[in-house]
Specification:
alpha/beta, five-stranded mixed sheet, about 10% strand
Length: about 200
């Protein structure tokens, strides 16, 4: 009995199919983009003028090599940092802030415009702790901004800021011009003054 030869598979178009699949995945795949912490750095000055800040207007946040949080030299759990920052920022020690709801502690900040949060990390602080501390402090500012924006304009500051920064908003006539003074007003009421010192190896 004669042996039958197996028919050959036509593989001539396999390269074309593989090439088309490659193009398909390149076009449809979303490429992740690394995002950093949004910070506006000050301009470089050769001889910057000395800044005179009263000690009570500075909230010192230290993170040591063991990822322990020290706020004004007192040990604090990171989940309590946001509320501590809110209390500090709107303390209203000098009574000049009509929109603040602070306790007017004479040993804490005078008003939001003078309040500065100073952050210092150890060189061995973990990245997760560093980001968590930054998130809590920024969240404190946004909590106060949201509250004041809701009170004045009936919308949260985050929503207003999102619409203001959205490129699609420029297509709507007058929208950006209307939002600009409102966004700036809320930012001026609670200016984000975060000062980050160079990390140290040991405290």
């Amino acid at each position: 009995m004669a042996r039958r030869e197996a028919p050959e598979v036509n593989a001539g178009s396999m390269a074309d199919i593989a090439f088309l699949l490659l193009i398909f995945f390149l076009v449809t795949t979303t490429i992740g983009v690394d995002q950093g912490i949004n910070r506006l750095l000050p301009r470089y000055e050769e001889n910057p003028p000395p800044v005179d800040i009263n000690e009570r207007n500075i909230m010192r946040v230290l993170v040591n090599m063991d990822n322990q949080l020290l706020v004004n030299e007192e040990l604090m759990n990171i989940k309590d940092l946001r509320q501590a920052a809110i209390d500090f920022l709107e303390n209203n020690g000098d009574g000049s802030c009509a929109y603040c709801k602070g306790e007017r502690n004479p040993n804490s900040s005078d008003n939001p415009d003078k309040a500065v949060i100073s952050i210092m990390n150890d060189g061995q602080t973990s990245y997760e702790t560093y980001i968590a501390v930054q998130n809590e402090l920024v969240a404190a500012y946004y909590f106060l901004r949201d509250r004041e924006c809701q009170k004045r304009y009936g919308v949260s500051f985050r929503e207003m800021e999102y619409v203001y920064n959205d490129p699609a908003s420029k297509a709507i006539e007058g929208l950006v011009d209307d939002l600009k003074p409102k966004v700036k007003k809320i930012q001026d009421l609670f200016p984000m003054r975060l000062s980050e010192a160079e990390p140290k190896k040991n405290y």
